[in-house]
Amino acid sequence: MLFPSLADELKDLEAAGLRRHRRVLESPQGARIVVDGREYLSFCSNDYLGLANHPALIAAAQSAAARYGVGVGASHLVNGHSVLHHELEVALAAFTGLPSALFFSTGYMANLGIVTALAGRDDEIFADKLNHASLNDAALLSRARFTRYPHLDLVVLEKRLAASRSKRKLVVTDAVFSMDGDIAPVPELLALCERHDALLVLDDAHGFGVLGDKGRGVLEHFGLLSRCLPPHSSPLTPHLIYMATLGKAAGVFGAFVAGPVELTDYLVQRARSYIYTTATPPLLSAALAASLKLIDEETWRRERLRELIASLRQSLKLQRWRLMDSTTPIQPVIIGSNQEALAVSEVLRERGIWVPAIRPPTVPKGEARLRISLSAAHTIEDVAHLAAALNELESAA
Ligand code: PMP
């Protein structure tokens, strides 16, 4: 009997502190959220710039809905490719300074589409051990040889690249690691890929909008944009594929890949998660176009984030728990055991502060943690309140 065995498995998950629960959010995303009628100070969302509930984005979505309706009812290659999708792709290419951009429904689907279009049975994919699940799933689906290297260990990666006899080699990595908040050494990775004629697929889900003075993401952070950019006479580095998501700092939904026109044209032909799915509601593209403008113009949002990050790191005085070494809005506190991480998250919730406990398999065993994410919507006082609560809970534990 299937269902009783599923129920047993659920009980085991519960007993191990690994069962995950959804909560029903009754408010927009923001520094304060409402769940079960109660307001909480929230440190759970990836709405890093505080744009998810911005009036300009809402107005753009509303007027697009009034003009174009709420659904396109077809995939991009049938007749679902709206003028608003088209305009967003043009805006994304201009924003990143890369020649061409292709808009995907989600980051998960973009990673599946990119990796399976570019790698097959004769190829090999090299992946950082801490990559996002979507990159791992993409590698498995591609049927390419799948080689994972220890987190950020470029010595091991180089050995494996050198030993590989596969036809095409793809190195895939998060640019900012989603559960640790650290940044991949992109210049070194790129140099390695150039030496070994491998493609570097960068997933900048958590860097886009946040890193770099202009929010262009990890390439701007490392001063690499000029290597990928026009003037069109200078060749693009042919080894880099840039991907980012639009449901985090951009505050809406979706993802894109940017690079040479040949790449985006090819993906339109071959990326199955682009081809075989209904195009997203065009109103999302309208909201995203408004978001790109704010990411560009409102630099204070990134400045505020930097102040909040510094303030949190200065105020936390932890002895037994460990604040990870991160300069991004993802500030994890390692607690260790699943049950203790859950218990701390629960006590914080009772005090009106929402911080998620992240447990295996999302993070390695024994490294359950609180994943604090900061947003430009927070104030210095919000962060001070969280730090005081954590300092007190740790000393009482
Ligand atoms: N890549 C990374 C690094 C992510 O953190 C996420 C989202 N958690 C994704 C991809 C998937 O993006 P989306 O939520 O748009 O599917």
TrEMBL record:
Matches recorded under Pfam families: Aminotran_1_2
Positions of the Aminotransferase class I/classII large domain: 39-390
Name of the top EC class for this enzyme: transferase
GO biological process, alphabetically ordered: biotin biosynthetic process
Modification N6-(pyridoxal phosphate)lysine, positions: K248
EC number(s) on file: 2.3.1.47
This protein's UniProt keywords: Acyltransferase, Biotin biosynthesis, Pyridoxal phosphate, Transferase
GO molecular function terms noted in the UniProt entry: 8-amino-7-oxononanoate synthase activity; pyridoxal phosphate binding
InterPro entries documented for this protein: Aminotransferase_I/II_large, AON_synthase_class-II, AONS_Archaea/Proteobacteria, AONS_Proteobacteria, PyrdxlP-dep_Trfase, PyrdxlP-dep_Trfase_major, PyrdxlP-dep_Trfase_small
Binding site for pyridoxal 5'-phosphate: G107, Y108, S178, H206, T245
Cofactor(s) needed: pyridoxal 5'-phosphate
Pathway assigned in UniProt: Cofactor biosynthesis; biotin biosynthesis
Reactions mediated catalytically: 6-carboxyhexanoyl-[ACP] + L-alanine + H(+) = (8S)-8-amino-7-oxononanoate + holo-[ACP] + CO2
CDD domains attached to this UniProt entry: KBL_like
Binding site for substrate: R20, H132, T362
Signal sequence region: none
Matching SUPFAM superfamilies: PLP-dependent transferases
Protein role: Catalyzes the decarboxylative condensation of pimeloyl-[acyl-carrier protein] and L-alanine to produce 8-amino-7-oxononanoate (AON), [acyl-carrier protein], and carbon dioxide.
Family named by the database record: Belongs to the class-II pyridoxal-phosphate-dependent aminotransferase family. BioF subfamily.
Subunit structure: Homodimer.
Protein name: 8-amino-7-oxononanoate synthase
Species: Sulfuricella denitrificans (strain DSM 22764 / NBRC 105220 / skB26)
